[in-house]
Amino acid sequence: GAGVSQSPSNKVTEKGKDVELRCDPISGHTALYWYRQSLGQGLEFLIYFQGNSAPDKSGLPSDRFSAERTGGSVSTLTIQRTQQEDSAVYLCASSLGSGASDYGYTFGSGTRLTVV
Amino acid sequence: AQSVTQPDIHITVSEGASLELRCNYSYGATPYLFWYVQSPGQGLQLLLKYFSGDTLVQGIKGFEAEFKRSQSSFNLRKPSVHWSDAAEYFCAVAPSGYSTLTFGKGTMLLVSP
Fold first, then answer.
1. Cβ contact (<8 Å) for B90 and A108?
2. In this predicted model, what pLDDT tens digit does every residue of A16-61 receive, in sequence order?
3. How far away is chain B from the Cα of A107, in angstroms, using its nearest Cα?
4. Please, how many CA atoms are within 13 Å of residue A115, restricted to the half-sphere of its CB?
5. Nearest CA-CA distance, residue B19 and chain A, Å
6. How many CB pairs under 8 A join A and B?
7. Closest CB from B41, B46, B99 relative to A48
8. Taking the CA atoms of chain B, what radius of gyration do you get in angstroms?
9. In angstroms, what is the C-alpha Rg of chain A?
10. A62-91, pLDDT tens digit by residue?
């Protein structure tokens, strides 16, 4: 597609439920990133996928968070047993080639997650 | 590890006045530097980036930024602010050859009439 597409745009879930957030990157972009944006905290890196390489999971805050990328394209971020502190905007970005260093990222509009 | 500091959480500027948003980074070598803007309910849009060469870089929407190695700074400027510039601005850094950006906490720009 023309841009990075994220769905749903808003999600309200009950504490303890699992949620799945979807990201569809720009066609041909080999790198995909997930960030979390909490009020007043800026953007927190979560996970990075590059081609067929093992993902960089160093930013995932707990083992309740996981992500996968199928066929080098669409990615799903899963949060299990959601907690109120998981409430945030989850942003996905993609990049051409191996790096933000060369090209910068293109961001989606995000998924606003509210845990009640 | 690299870090980015944006000292100003909020800035209010009158429409037509000049703007400077501050960004300081912590990194041993010359990093790759970026400024992004986020309008309400939107994702982040790249304004400009610096990799090497001329330390004054031009971006979209009339913005520019200057890299100053001696001050570890990469401040964003605009000579005349428009009401549509009201948004949140993020500075980001990546070490050369590495992909993951580290972002500052952002500066919210308010534009008064």
1. no
2. 999 999 999 999 888 899 999 998 778 999 999 988 888 999 999 9
3. 6
4. 16
5. 21
6. 66
7. B99
8. 13
9. 13
10. 999 999 998 879 999 999 999 999 999 999
